[in-house]
Design goal:
16 helices; mainly alpha
């Protein structure tokens, strides 16, 4: 959503004899601000309507195009507080809400579409069929979900209404692609950590009921898995446990015991010790500290990491947005 500068905002130098009195200048300025807000809101709603129209189609390749448009739109929205506020206002309108569309189409589990009877054969209306979501579509949908939850807190409520934790854990355990699994971990962080206390407790209970810690630990111990993804799993545990320990009541009461059982006492102790500190570092230093601690956690499991993991920029994608708030 790249906006051109409106014509009325371009001020040309005026001779002193034509200058307006202060009250008139103030009125004109207020009118220009109002026109800019209205124009920006129309752009926001148009971008959402266009992207959501394609995201609701029956064909995966069309949905991918719509998701790419929405993701590009969210990135441009995040550039200023005014556009973020307009996006949040738009999510109070049902037909413009993004998260429900994601779970109804791109993140839907297609085993739910199994035909229970043959009434459609003898009826007049044809049966609507949708092509299953591709790996690329799922990864894009997860990135859009992540962005919505980070920009608009109430989107986590919409996600919970569609059993988001259960759906994401199913994707994490059944989808083998690095892109989908990495995006899934990022979306889990944005949903579980950026929500109210009551909502967070519900998400953590869902995560616990889905054996979330066990699944993440399994990925960490998988030697065949991409190293960046294993690092992301380590960062996920550090952020999650650090956030839980920062609360008065920990929703995951058995989390330390589970990590100790699955990854070993040394790894559990490292994670627990890291969660006790709330460093007052800037963003770049916090990301570096998170990366170093995640590497130590993985090394403590006895599974050697490759030394060419690099600067790990892709692996800390979501951490840029949450580590300062929750560490």
């Amino acid at each position: 959503m790249h906006l051109k500068k409106p014509l009325w905002s371009e001020s040309s130098p005026q001779p002193e004899s034509d200058q307006k009195p202060p009250c008139a200048a103030t009125a004109v300025g207020e009118m220009v601000v109002s026109l800019n807000k209205q124009r920006l809101y129309r752009k926001v709603t148009l971008a959402l309507r266009t992207g959501l129209k394609e995201a609701r189609t029956e064909f995966s390749f069309l949905r991918v195009g719509g998701l790419r448009s929405i993701l590009k739109f969210l990135r441009s929205v995040a550039e200023s507080d005014s556009t973020i506020n307009l996006f949040c206002r738009s999510q109070s309108i049902p037909e413009l809400q993004v998260v429900p569309v994601l779970f109804q189409y791109s993140l839907r589990r297609y085993e739910e579409d199994i035909v229970a009877n043959l009434n459609h054969i003898f009826g007049v209306e044809p049966m609507k069929m949708s092509t299953p979501s591709t790996d690329a579509e799922v990864a894009l949908a997860l990135r859009v979900l992540e962005g919505c939850c980070l920009l608009h807190r109430e989107s986590t409520i919409f996600a919970h209404q569609h059993k988001a934790i259960e759906v994401l854990m199913d994707i994490l355990s059944t989808r083998g692609g690095v892109l989908e699994q990495g995006a899934c971990l990022d979306a889990l962080i944005s949903i579980m950590l950026d929500s109210s206390a009551n909502q967070m407790a519900c998400h953590h209970l869902d995560f616990e009921s889905c054996d979330g810690i066990e699944e993440v630990a399994h990925l960490i111990r998988d030697k065949q898995l991409d190293e960046n993804l294993r690092m992301k799993c380590g960062e996920f545990l550090l952020l999650l446990i650090g956030h839980v320990n920062g609360r008065d009541r920990a929703p995951l009461a058995r989390i330390h015991e589970d990590v100790s059982r699955l990854l070993g006492e040394k790894s559990a102790s490292l994670i627990w010790a890291a969660s006790q500190f709330r460093p007052t570092l800037d963003l770049e230093q916090s990301l570096t500290a998170l990366h170093i601690q995640a590497r130590r956690v993985l090394e403590s499991t006895g599974l050697v990491l490759n030394q060419n993991t690099g600067d790990h920029q892709n692996s800390v994608h979501i951490s840029v947005l949450v580590v300062v708030s929750f560490w």
